[in-house]
From TrEMBL, chain A:
Signal peptide interval: none
UniProt-listed Pfam families: Ldh_1_C, Ldh_1_N
Residue span(s) of domain Lactate/malate dehydrogenase C-terminal: 157-323
InterPro entries per UniProt: L-lactate/malate_DH, Lactate/malate_DH_C, Lactate/malate_DH_N, Lactate_DH/Glyco_Ohase_4_C, Malate_DH_AS, Malate_DH_NAD-dep_euk, Malate_DH_type2, NAD(P)-bd_dom_sf
Organism in which the protein naturally occurs: Hibiscus sabdariffa (roselle)
Top-tier EC class: oxidoreductase
Residue ranges annotated for the Lactate/malate dehydrogenase N-terminal domain, each copy included: 6-153
Catalytic activity entry: (S)-malate + NAD(+) = oxaloacetate + NADH + H(+)
The family this protein is said to belong to: Belongs to the LDH/MDH superfamily. MDH type 2 family.
Protein name: Malate dehydrogenase
EC number(s) per entry: 1.1.1.37
Keywords per UniProt: NAD, Oxidoreductase, Tricarboxylic acid cycle
Entry keyword annotation includes Repeat: no
TrEMBL record, chain B:
Family: Belongs to the LDH/MDH superfamily. MDH type 2 family.
Subcellular location: Nucleus
One Pfam family, short name: Ldh_1_N
PANTHER family: MALATE DEHYDROGENASE (PTHR23382)
InterPro entries named in the record: AP2/ERF_dom, AP2/ERF_dom_sf, DNA-bd_dom_sf, Lactate/malate_DH_C, Lactate/malate_DH_N, Lactate_DH/Glyco_Ohase_4_C, Malate_DH_AS, Malate_DH_NAD-dep_euk
Superkingdom of origin: Eukaryota
AP2/ERF domain segment(s): 13-70
Keywords, ordered alphabetically: DNA-binding, NAD, Nucleus, Oxidoreductase, Transcription, Transcription regulation, Tricarboxylic acid cycle
Name of the protein this chain belongs to: malate dehydrogenase
EC assignment: 1.1.1.37
EC top class, as a word: oxidoreductase
């Protein structure tokens, strides 16, 4: 246990995703089996007792890697010294709610948390926003924490990325670890574009193996886009397990690097690559190395894909306007 | 490694290949100059087992080996000698090639120069099991992956199941290189929720998770499972005593005993979590007589971990510096958390008894004990829900240590079938201090028991005997 512990903040830690996420972090799934961690857990005062219950359970689990737990309702205490911040806290989506419904409730949360993070987090803190509307919450956070480098503020589309891998693996009846390089473009919403044009199984393109463009351009896309709602319908609760797992994958690949020849999807501050609108948080294919992500450039975009990329870009621009109008 | 079952059938054409009654193929090598056979890994196809036999045969017999695929011999990655380092190097080469047929090979490797050294090296190996372990590892990597282990979780749509299945799928239970197949069982009313969990497992794209079987049929759920974690039962709610839930659970465990006995893989390891854990496990044992009693356990690792946690908080040290607490008896409020043999070892420090470091016998004999005993209720009070996270984590620890072995000098607590050790009545599932090695647990014997402890140990044993009586009365 020679490494210095890394401080990981989870906001909304008393909720469903937090409860799934904290044992994963404490077992080394997020940062590696040899990386000690200190967990910072934040939630709102009504959840203080439940939050303390989670802290008690973390003590009860006797995790070798878990060097400390800070459980608090004070955002300043929560943010102090953190190296990784996973922002799960927000207003959860319930059956029937569209993402826009929850936006206004979340925008003011992210404005105030931006301020605390900027002032108290460790330098080079890596931020992952999970709470929906994830892209726009991340954008608000970025706008109100100007001293946090824009490249350090991301949102989660790894869940959609993993869902796309899962759907392909089920369709082809192969191991999911054999499928790679799908892309999730754009917004973590029903306009996201799950793109298999560069995805492969082994060295064969997915399109060739599936041999069903109609499915790939139709049902496959809508299944991935609407998977969140399908989970809620089956479980009567949001997808905590898979979201927590994807959050671990997102951070792990960001910090430890993506495998050679493989990219992943991350919502990142758009620089206008692929003609996506600049100045929004847009999901791109990225590789990661030395703790930094880089957009995979030069991928061919066909006409069908171009329309999808534009559609989700347009939605993000609308959300940005809506968010700003909530703040005025 | 594994015993021949009468149901094994020899493959009609491949040498050294047998089919198990549950459909897997195992490859075997005859030890040099002996009648006995060395059993190696199992494989999903006869062809893979046949190739595995070839690799082992070449390793042992060199150029004179009989091969199932002589035309492929030059493509097999072989060690330059039988030294462990060379075997591992060849193993890595095997693992690095994507398909054996197309792999690049070094023809110089296929030379008989090392043949003379083999028998000397084999003779130096003390036990056949070591040779078979090396060859097993070599061949496991040669066949590109370990055989997946089937893990059943009952009550999988519930809170503990939801916390547990991602831990299993990430390798927390069996190791980061052990593929798993999850079997998830729940009752009909939870079928849709169970499907939702399966969908999420697909959505998580776990590399180690080879398959998921989701069912409300206990026969299907139990088929071929190597590990069974019985979480399903009637959950305790705020205010309920464990005895309140017993009658609801006893009939569940009788029915599931029957299915497990008939369907599970031989040597299936069973962990009962659902309360009343000890008595549920006892019922399971009684109604599954062909499952070896040593394979049926209940979870007291949660209490064990809780005790470690309380000591670490008291001493303001890291929990990994405390060890060898004991949880005796029932996973209930009569459990006895015993620190008399527990020690604290700070980093770069000397190992010291917990009692002298804490220096507060009153606390250790009263508040500490009640805190651990009642921790479950305290969690429910704070969360308004049962302790799913820590229970799932403890279940992983229990199985992992059982399968992989406990670290040297360390024991853990497991609820196991009592053999009368420490004066406890045989015939109940009682939590003892155990060490684990080669997939078997052994009670740590010879620990001194003072009068205070004796009373506590007897009190919890008494409760278990009462529970047993109550359980049987529920069945009539």
């Amino acid at each position: 246990m020679a490494k210095e512990p890394v401080r990981v903040l989870v906001t909304g830690a008393a909720g469903q995703i937090g409860y799934a996420l904290v044992p994963m972090i404490a077992r080394g799934i997020m940062l590696g089996a040899d990386q000690p961690v200190i967990l910072h857990m934040l939630d709102i005062p009504p959840a203080a007792e439940a939050l303390n219950g989670v802290k008690m359970e973390l003590v009860d689990a006797a995790f070798p890697l878990l060097k400390g737990v800070v459980a608090t309702t004070d955002v300043v205490e929560a943010c102090t010294g953190v190296n990784v911040a996973v922002m799960v806290g927000g207003f959860p989506r319930k059956e029937g709610m569209e993402r826009k419904d929850v936006m206004s409730k979340n925008v003011s949360i992210y404005k105030s948390q931006a301020s605390a993070l900027e002032q108290h987090a460790a330098p080079n803190c890596k931020v992952l926003v999970v709470a929906n509307p994830a892209n726009t919450n991340a954008l608000i956070l970025k706008e109100f924490a100007p001293s946090i480098p824009a490249k350090n503020i991301t949102c989660l589309t790894r869940l959609d990325h993993n869902r796309a891998l899962g759907q392909i693996s089920e369709r082809l009846n192969v191991q999911v670890s054999d499928v790679k390089n799908v892309i999730i473009w754009g917004n973590h919403s029903s306009t996201q574009y799950p793109d298999v044009n560069h995805a492969t199984v082994g060295d064969k393109p997915v399109r060739e193996l599936v041999k069903d463009d109609e499915w790939l351009n139709g049902e496959f896309i809508t299944t991935v886009q609407q998977r969140g709602a399908a989970i809620i319908k089956a479980r009567k609760l949001s997808s905590a397990l898979s979201a927590a797992s994807a959050a671990c994958d997102h951070i792990r690949d960001w910090v430890l690097g993506t495998p050679e020849g493989t990219w992943v999807s991350m919502g990142v501050y758009s620089d206008g690559s692929y003609d996506a609108p600049a100045g929004v948080i847009y999901s791109f294919p990225v590789t990661c190395k030395n703790g930094e992500w880089t957009i995979v450039q030069g991928l061919a975009i066909d006409e069908f894909s171009r329309k999808k990329l534009e559609l989700t870009g347009a939605e993000l621009t609308e959300e940005k306007e809506l968010a700003y109008s909530c703040l005025s | 490694m594994q015993k021949t079952s009468e149901d094994d059938t020899k493959h009609p054409t491949f040498r050294g290949v047998r089919m198990r009654s549950w459909g897997k193929w195992v490859s075997e090598i005859r030890e040099p100059r002996k009648k006995s056979r060395i059993w190696l890994e199992t494989y999903p196809t006869a062809e893979m087992a046949a190739r595995a036999h070839d690799v082992g045969a070449l390793a042992i017999k060199g150029c004179s080996a009989y091969l199932n695929f002589p035309e492929l011999a030059k493509e097999l990655p072989l060690p330059a000698s039988m030294s462990p380092k060379e075997i591992q190097a060849a193993t890595s080469r095997a693992a690095a090639s994507t398909r054996i047929i197309n792999s690049s090979f070094n023809t110089e490797m296929l030379s008989c120069q090392w043949t003379g050294g083999i028998e000397a090296i084999v003779a130096r190996l003390e036990l056949p099991s070591r040779l078979s372990w090396f060859l097993g590892r070599f061949l496991a990597l040669y066949s590109m992956a370990k055989d997946p282990v089937r893990v059943l979780v009952t009550g999988a749509a519930g809170q503990i199941g939801y916390a547990l299945v991602p831990m299993i799928a990430r390798g927390v239970m069996l190791g980061p290189d052990q593929p798993v197949i999850l079997h998830m069982l729940d009752i009909e009313p939870a079928a849709e929720a169970l499907t939702g969990v399966r969908m999420e497992l697909v959505d998580a794209a776990f590399p180690l998770l080879r398959d998921v079987v989701v069912t409300t049929d206990v026969t299907v759920a139990c088929k071929g499972v190597n590990i069974a974690v019985m979480v399903g039962g009637f959950p305790r709610k705020e205010g309920m005593e464990r005895k309140d839930v017993m009658s609801k659970n006893v009939s569940i465990y009788k029915a599931q005993a029957s299915a497990l006995e008939k369907q599970a893989a031989p040597d299936c390891k069973v962990l009962v979590v659902a309360n009343p854990a000890n008595t549920n496990a006892l019922i399971l044992k009684e109604f599954a007589p062909s499952i070896p009693e040593k394979n049926i356990t209940c979870l007291t690792r949660l209490d064990h971990n809780r005790a470690l946690g309380q000591l670490s908080e008291r001493l303001k040290i890291h929990v990994s510096e405390v060890k060898n607490v004991i949880i005796w008896g029932n996973h209930s409020s009569t459990q006895y958390p015993d620190v008399n043999h527990a020690t604290v070892t700070p980093a770069n420090g000397e190992e010291k008894p917990v009692r002298s470091v804490v220096a507060d016998d009153n606390w250790l004999n009263t508040e500490f004990i009640t805190m651990v005993q009642q921790r479950g209720a305290a969690i429910i009070k704070a969360r308004k829900l049962s302790s799913a996270l820590s229970a799932a984590s403890a279940a992983c620890d229990h199985i992992r240590d059982w399968v992989v072995g406990t670290p040297k000098g360390t024991w853990v607590s497991m609820g196991v079938y009592s053999d009368g050790s420490y004066g406890i009545q045989p015939g109940v599932i009682y939590s003892y201090p155990v060490t684990c090695d080669k997939g078997q647990w052994s009670i740590v014997q010879g620990l001194k028991i003072d009068d205070f402890s004796r009373q506590k140990m007897d009190a919890t044993a008494k409760e278990l005997v009462e529970e047993k009586t109550l359980a049987y009365s529920c069945l009539n």
